[in-house]
Amino acid sequence: MICRMWHGWTSIAQADAYEMLLREEVFRGIASRLTVGFHGIELLRRTTGDEVEFVTLMWFDSIDAVRAFAGADYEQAVVPPAARRLLARFDDRSSHFEVRLPGSAETESARPATDSATPRRPSKPTP
Asked: Which of 9, 21, 60, 102 is the most buried (most CB within 10 A)?
């Protein structure tokens, strides 16, 4: 499982409009693409001083699935023009992480990687 992380910042005055754009247009557009290996997106938001930071976490089966979404230069951020107009600044490149321990309330998932028990398949995060 791969987590694609991206950050964007906007003014407090633009934050609600930006979040609505993400929810109503950007995320729906991503979902409508039906990218094989895409499992969802999460949105984080926090106010820091006079700006609002947004973080998106997208979940994919593999880097190949990320490439199917973002293109050959898969680290390049995908930021539509309408979103760019509302953002003060944003990451030009997304970061990609191999998910080593997926989120789970199960204590069994926290066992050490050297455990001889049968490996478990990562659970799919829910957006």
From this structure: 60
User: With 50 as the cut, is the pLDDT of residue 122 above it?
Assistant: no
Mean pLDDT of the chain, nearest integer: 85
CATH of the domain at 89: 3.30.70.100
What 21-28 contacts at long range (C-beta under 8 Å, 24+ apart), as own/partner pairs, is: 21/82, 21/83, 21/86, 22/54, 22/56, 22/83, 25/80, 25/82, 26/80, 26/83
Domain range for 90 is: 2-100
CA distance 112 to 87: 41
Looking at the structure of the chain, the number of domains it has is 1
Mean pLDDT across the stretch 2-18?
97
**Inside any domain, residue 85:** yes
**13 found inside a domain:** yes
Can you give the pLDDT at residue 104? Answer: 65
